[in-house]
Structures are given as structure tokens and as C-alpha cells.
Design goal:
Elements lengths: L10 E7 L7 H12 L3 E7 L5 H10 L4 E4 L13 E2 L1 H6 L4 E5 L2 E5 L2 H10 L9 E5 L3 H12 L4 E6 L2 H12 L5 E5 L11 E4 L19 H5 L3 E4 L8 H8 L3 E3 L2 H16 L5 H18 L1
Parallel strand pairs: 1-2, 1-3, 4-6, 7-8, 7-10, 8-9, 10-11, 11-12
Antiparallel strand pairs: 3-5, 5-6
Helix pairs in contact: 1-9, 1-10, 4-5, 4-9, 9-10
Bound molecules: NADP nicotinamide-adenine-dinucleotide phosphate (NAP).
The site of NADP nicotinamide-adenine-dinucleotide phosphate has 26 residues, from helix 4, helix 5 and helix 9.
Amino acid sequence: MVDNSVKGKTAVYGVIGCPIEHTFSPAIHNTMAKTLNKDMIYEAFRVEKDNLESAIKGAYSLGIKGLNVTVPHKVEVMKCLCDIDKRAKVIGAVNTLKYTENGYVGYNTDIIGVYYAIKNKGFDVKGKTVLLLGAGGAGNACGVMAADKGAKMLYIANRTVSKADKLAESIRAEYPEIKTLSIDDIYDIPNVDIVLNATVIGFGENKGLSPIKDTGFYKNKGVEMVFDAIYSPWETQLLKDCRKEGITGINGFDMLVYQAVAAEEIWFDEEIDPQLTEKARKELSDFYRENN
Ligand code: NAP
């Protein structure tokens, strides 16, 4: 049967990273393309660290309209861009590139991703005491989101406290209510409404572990909700512990979908109908759970 779906004018998008074989981004974007009836395809490209600059130049020459950027390129790629969005500069990392006539412009849509992952489950950081665990790429996005969206108090706890200090420094000018601490000292915090986990504890070789070792923490501190940026495994030890304590836990899958939708809004320069997003999110989530 002839497949005439990809034509000369079909727009090409993609994700670069290394490794990249595990990525779910093509499934998300190609599903969204069908949902939105866009003439586009989205591919995954494995790009080694040493080839990053030539890959970006090549992608631009080929007219690739937009790229997502994942580990390990989110910081280094900033050197290859003609401009960087203000929020991405504060985070210090870029996950979305948009083709313009001067070169690629960089954005970070992880802030929007984590915000809607929480909000669409009925939670908001506004006026709350937030404990952020982690100060890497995802941690920076979660921290800037908490500050932007009006958290009353933000604790940033990280294994390496200097990285938490660096993140605090970048947002303190606009948002002074921040304290940094070692992840081992979180038990000394008087009260916490919302926990955001952006460490790798619970993922990969750390599967089965939780960054909060004392499960009495949730009741003692008055925790309402815990968000874990991890979505593989679907329910981390952290989220299992919350469930046992009767506390709402949200995993990172919706963050993944919403950051992708936010990237498409930048690429297409249009707002995507939330009902279409919700339909695609549900299909993708059901598929992912069945197949992982
Ligand atoms: P990253 O930049 O490498 O940061 C890793 C974080 O984990 C750092 O805060 C690091 O602390 C901490 N960490 C590493 N090993 C630790 C240990 N043994 N004990 C305590 N803390 C430890 O990684 P990232 O890109 O931010 O990703 C973090 C997590 O978020 C990953 O699990 C990733 O899968 C997830 N994520 C999810 C989404 C999504 O859309 N749902 C998007 C991005 C990332 P140090 O600073 O001390 O090293």
C-alpha cells in the first residue's frame, strides 16, 4: 500500500539527546499532530556530546522547524542559539528550540509542564510552603515555577547544597522567601504543604528508594500533596509511601505531556485547545501504562 502521508512540504521536528532510544517524545508529538491535524513528523536523533554544535547547524540547514533537547545537552545547547527566552535563562537550561530566520531561539517548557501537572489535579503552589528536593535541570524548573506562581515559602533541599544555593540566587532577586538546606535536614523544617521531588531517587539504579526516608514526615509536617517528576516506574517508592499515608501523589507523566504541548504552542504560535490536550494526554497515559 502506498504511504503518501509524508510529503515534500511536511514539517520536520524532533528531539536530540544521548541516549535517546528510550524517549517517549515521538509518541507524544506524533499523537498530538494527528489530534491537531498538523502536516508534520517528529523523530528522535541521537547526538553525541562532541557533535552537538554541528548537529544544531545541520538541523538548521535542513530547515528542521523545532527541536526538543534532553540529557545531556540542555545547558550546552544554549551556546548554539541566536536568542534565549528570559525564563529559560533564569533556569539555566533549554528544552525547546524554535526555528527563526536568525537561528534557533531557546525556551524551557518544563516550568509550564510541572505547573499544569499539579494544577490539573486540583493543586496550586500559590500561598503554600513548598519543599523542593533536587537542584538539577528539573529542580531548577520546579523552583522557578514555585517562585513564579506565588509560593509563600520555598525550601530547596539538595545533596549538594551549593547547587541549591545557586538556584536560590538566580530567583531570589524577584522572590526572597527561600531557604536552602541539605536533603538530610528536611526533617527539621516546621511545616510543608507541597513536596516536589526532582532528584533521581526512585529512578534507574535508585528504583525502590525514596528521598524521604521517614514516612512519618507527611503527617508530622502536614503535607497535602507530593509531586514526583519521575514517571518510570509509574509509582515510585515516594508515591507509594504517600498513598499509604492517605496523601495525594502525582507522578511526572503529565509534566512530560504538558511540556510537550507547551513546546508545540511555541512552534505553531497558537494556543492548543485544552480539551484536545486532555484527550491526547489520556490516550498517551493509558498507552504508556499498558506498555511499560
Ligand atoms: P539532573 O540535572 O542530573 O539532577 C539530578 C538531581 O538528583 C540533583 O539534584 C542531584 O543532586 C540529585 N541526586 C542524584 N543522585 C542523588 C543521590 N544519590 N542522593 C540524593 N540526590 C541525588 O537530572 P534532572 O534532569 O533534573 O532529572 C531529575 C529527575 O527528574 C529524573 O528522575 C528525571 O527522570 C526527572 N525528569 C522528569 C521530567 C518530566 O517531564 N517528568 C523532566 C525532566 C526530568 P546533586 O546536585 O547533589 O548531584
